[in-house]
Amino acid sequence: MYRRPIQSAVRNILSVSASKATLGKAVEQDGCLKALVVAATIPSPQTQCRTLHSSRQLYTVKETPQATDEEVGAFTKLIEAMGFTGPLKYNKWKIKIAALRMYTCCVERINYDEFFEKCSLPDTLNSWFLVAQLHVWMCLVRMRQEGREGKYMCRYIVHSMWEDVEQRSKIMGIDAVHRKEAMRAMTENFYAAIFGYDEGILSDDAVLVAALWRNFFNRQCEDPLQLEIMVEYVRKQMQFIDALDGEDLLLTGEVKWRPLTEENAQSILKVSSPTYNDTGL
Predict the structure, then answer these.
(1) What does the alpha-carbon distance between residue 149 and residue 165 come to, in Å, rounded to a whole number?
(2) CB neighbours (10 Å) of residue 45?
């Protein structure tokens, strides 16, 4: 398993956090957001001590030719400026189904218990949302490379996420007033996290560590090993998704995730092409 020079970045973040302790605790989540937190707590796992190796080589997402903006007519530009969607390469209904399927892959194909254990996160709805939004963001980054169709698909991935979060909060018995306030707070946190993750994936590991520490760990992580695991996971997962065929993603929405920890994190296995019928289902 490769290692990246993130030790110094982690220590800098933790030292800044310690220096601010005299001025008060870090900004806590909105009180309404706390209404969604379940009191179940997972005991911190016993982590093994591992030797961290430094390397000057930076492993980044595989660079692929960026899709050029599709040439559209004046009428299409006009209706899209008004908030409507112009003609797309594929049927809009097919893209919506693929978007729902891709979001389903983000919530049903993830081992959340492993994330809670390895990252010492409490088993709560808020922790579930933090893990889910990280994987949704990775899907959004990939689909934005697929032109207008990909951007259209991104809208429905996010729409599916909020529908799911609202349904889960209803099942938990949160009343309508607190649910509305909590949804507003989670929306603000989501777009703040998206901005931080975007900056981190385009920068070096130090920036990505800071984004994960702020958003994924809620400024509560003091274990460099946990930050290292998450940086490694995001880098290898983004490289893995980037290798998937864009047309297959638009038609099927099928995404497979690599394990959180594995022996050889650099090995990128060729993903078998998904099968779909003439209607894209």
Answers:
(1) 25
(2) 11
Tokens (6 digits) for 275: 């099968």
Q: What is the pLDDT of residues 223-274, one digit of tens each?
A: 999 999 999 999 999 999 999 998 999 989 999 899 998 877 665 544 555 5
Q: How does DSSP classify residue 193?
A: H
Eight-state DSSP code of residue 20: G
Cα gap 222→16, rounded to integer Å? 12
Residues 245-248: contacts with CB within 8 Å, 24+ apart? 245/273, 246/145, 246/146, 246/150, 248/273, 248/274, 248/276
The answer to whether the CB of 210 falls within 8 A of the CB of 14 is no
Residues of the chain whose pLDDT is less than 50? 1-7, 9-10, 13-14, 16-68, 75, 84, 269-270
Which residues, other chains included, contact 101 with Cβ-Cβ below 8 Å and sequence gap of 6+? 252, 253, 254
